[in-house]
Amino acid sequence: MLSDYTMRKTIKNTALFSSQFIQIWNNKLILVSIYTDLIFFIDLDKNQVTEMLWCQNEKYIETLFRSFCRLDDDLILIPYNAEDFVKIDLNTKHVEDISGIIKNEEKVKAGKFLCGIKAGGYLWIIGENLRKVIGLDIQRNYVKAFEYDYSDLGEVFWSGSYIIHNNMIYIPGRRSNQILEIDIIKQNAKVRQISGLKDVSGFLDIVYLEDGIHLFDSAGLEYKWDPQYDLTEYLESNELEEFFLASRQSFVYKDKLFRVALFEDSLYIRSTGEKFCRVSVPCRQNNLGNNYTHFHDGYAVGRYFYIQSRDGRLFCLDMETAKVVEYPVYDTNDEIGELRRIAAGKMFNKMDIKEGIMENIEDLIDSLYQGQAANERKNFSKIGKIILEMIKFI
After folding, report:
1. Please, are residues 343 and 11 in contact by the beta-carbon 8 Å criterion?
2. Which tens digits make up the pLDDT trace of 190-211?
3. What's the pTM?
4. Which of 17, 76, 135, 335 could form a disulfide with 146 if both were Cys (CB 3.0 to 4.6 A apart)?
5. Pairing mode, strands 323-326 and 266-271
6. Crossing angle of helices 376-391/351-369, nearest 10°?
7. How far apart are CA 89 and CA 176, in angstroms?
8. To the nearest 10°, the Cα dihedral for 370, 375, 380, 383?
9. CA atoms within 13 A on the CB side of 290
10. Whole-number Å distance between alpha carbons of 268 and 162
């Protein structure tokens, strides 16, 4: 039972949590904010932020790290706009750069890496605007042991959805009919063309089911792919009764396939041999912009799947019952609350947040100018509410 004091400390600036990925350590969710360089540790039993780290470095710009991996008691932050990889000892909270991985001329590159995948004793780093795959030897303190450069293929972007099957990592292209294949045993990689497809321009999801590897394209259509014989089959029988786009994450629990909607506050679930059914997430996100996905990547813990909305709220999906509830988070002391408040001021400088608030103001001004608003008192009430929303981020 939460104390009255803790209840009063309910976190309001939830967008601070907005983290591209989620990891877990000692029954605590780890979130690395993409708006600030804050790292949150959230106790799953107490619904509390028990610790925060602020890896502040003035020479870095925002969105330092979009992705990260927990390897035993190490947390590895993978640079997006940061100059180097960062290792955090989760026991001591000691923070240090990992040098020697990124070349000096590459450090100024924006959007360096997409994600990291742990497999076969290595952390495989997948490139975004740096078009290469890097293998870091975990046992040798993350020494770079492998590098595959595919920059000669032009602008190839990977989806971030991946599977590990038969000692291979497979990651589909999100804008092209290509797939990145990493051989974990032989420690080599190559880019393969997915043949036999027409009018398909990339894939959002890849998942391994009982009958093999399944791919979902950007239009939501489903294909079965055999890497051994390079055969692709369009699964017409799995056509959707209700059209939806799903984000770059699919996950399987028992006989159920779960997919997260791309531009709506929903999940889609399919049991073996059945059609997808829609499950609403209890939130309504506004002012995200046309190209903003509604959810970041989630994390499964037993029967529960934790997922974060774009505005930073946490939700928990019970995969047994297919029920989704919001997971409230609370501050535990004034020190954490103060650090969060300072970071909120930094976050407000993010253009997509300011633009969302400014759009509200601009719409209201337009309605006033056109004489469409109901009355002056109501209009001033609206302006007051918008100003209060702005104050939350200061």
Report:
1. no
2. 999 998 887 788 998 999 999 9
3. 0.82
4. 135
5. unpaired
6. 170
7. 38
8. -50
9. 0
10. 19
